[in-house]
Amino acid sequence: xxxxxxxxxxxxxxxxxxxxxxxxxxxxxxxxxxxxxxxxxxxxxxxxxxxxxxxxxxxxxxxxxxxxxxxxxxxxxxxxxxxxxxxxxxxxxxxxxxxxxxxxxxxxxxxxxxxxxxxxxxxxxxxxxxxxxxxxxxxxxxxxxxxxxxxxxxxxxxxxxxxxxxxxxxxxxxxxxxxxxxxxxxxxxxxxxxxxxxxxxxxxxxxxxxxxxxxxxxxxxxxxxxxxxxxxxxxxxxxxxxxxxxxxxxxxxxxxxxxxxxxxxxxxxxxxxxxxxxxxxxxxxxxxxxxxxxxxxxxxxxxxxxxxxxxxxxxxxxxxxxxxxxxxxxxxxxxxxxxxxxxxxxxxxxxxxxxxxxxxxxxxxxxxxxxxxxxxxxxxxxxxxxxxxxxxxxxxxxxxxxxxxxxxxxxxxxxxxxxxxxxxxxxxxxxxxxxxxxxxxxxxxxxxxxxxxxxxxxxxxxxxxxxxxxxxxxxxxxxxxxxxxxxxxxxxxxxxxxxxxxxxxxxxxxxxxxxxxxxxxxxxxxxxxxxxxxxxxxxxxxxx
Length: 544
Fold this sequence. Notes:
- By secondary structure, the chain is an alpha/beta fold.
- The protein is built from 20 helices and 15 strands.
- It folds into 3 domains: 9-176, no CATH class; 196-407, Mur-like, catalytic domain (UDP-N-acetylmuramoyl-L-alanine:D-glutamate ligase); 416-543, Alpha-Beta Complex (Protein-Tyrosine Phosphatase, Chain A), CATH 3.90.190.20.
- Helix 4 (56-82) packs antiparallel against helix 6 and helix 17 runs parallel beside helix 18 (467-479).
């Protein structure tokens, strides 16, 4: 009888097996889809993850397949020898599904910093995956019916091996649809922003300091305007579109958009959508050098902000950063504004950094104003000045600026001070470490002179060819800043350790752990009253 004959009972058995196996394979795909999601739905970082983990997850799937195949094959032999029954001969499949379910449960138990989020886009990828798995499973089983009885159903046990390949394939298949959907969101966003003709739209970009500057600017402007700002690090077209469509109210007077990029043209794309009336460029550094390839491309990309502003627009440049200073010099806008060290519109003097925060003189319009904030990190003075400069340009008084500065709060996970029980202090600087930021964080840690100091870090990433060298340098800086260094993961621990040892750091005080969850357990026995712990860069699961 032919397989596709409706009177053939094997057809219905294959359909049931196909439905069940496709569901199992979708669950087995969760880890690979999580990495794709953390990689920004880009295949290149996903491939790098597979390479960096030395295909560890593929190896686990291979073990699952081997155990399942053995279970099915041995069962087929036993039942074929002693019982002449198709039904009993297929009982070996129980081993496969049992092993697969146990595998899924055990994988689910592994702690994850940022679990897979089943968004609408991810649901569409799941649908595409299910169809792919169903087609492959059904035809593989149908073809296997001509094999030896011992082997024919065992073909299903090797289907998990296709998961690492089909996950990115499903992403590619759904890509055209996603582009249509994204373009629809971006168009609706642009239409709404254009319709709100009196709305002041501000774009903020930079290699680092964007989120903090955005928070400070919002605080300054709220003394005069009703403000809507993108939350946290919502700095992509879809993130900004979501905020505009869901959170921006008709009576809002200012909209602040943080603008991020990992390749050239992405800031321009955001500007074409938001149509900003003003901007701030916070910094330029080696962050995302891996995707940009060189520093010049980063500078060109950040320059897309002021290049897409109206000719009479205000753009604030933090000229304390040498690369931003060059951008300021190249900018043709007549209302370009320089702040920070070497700035002319607004700059600082006599910064005093303590464990309680920052004190400094704010210099504006020929006068000096003494002010202070509980925010840690000297680099935040430039972020405050950048935000204050644009607020002043938009009509907020210097008196109001000085009133708000002491009330400013640290952006989450950016040198955020947390006091725990037993007088233990956590300095949470776990969001997106960069070379300049880590240097400031370690200098901040040094301020706690009387305390035992501990640094926890997985190192610096996305630095391309200079990544190894910079992590060795990071190790050297850590050596002069702390008493105990806890290195997390295998990605850069060896390079950081090299730097530590080059500076004569006691190897006994270097602890290497695979995950941050292991570090958390270590804290239960390691931490003492009065300890200060710096959490420097908490990498997501795709950097393990």
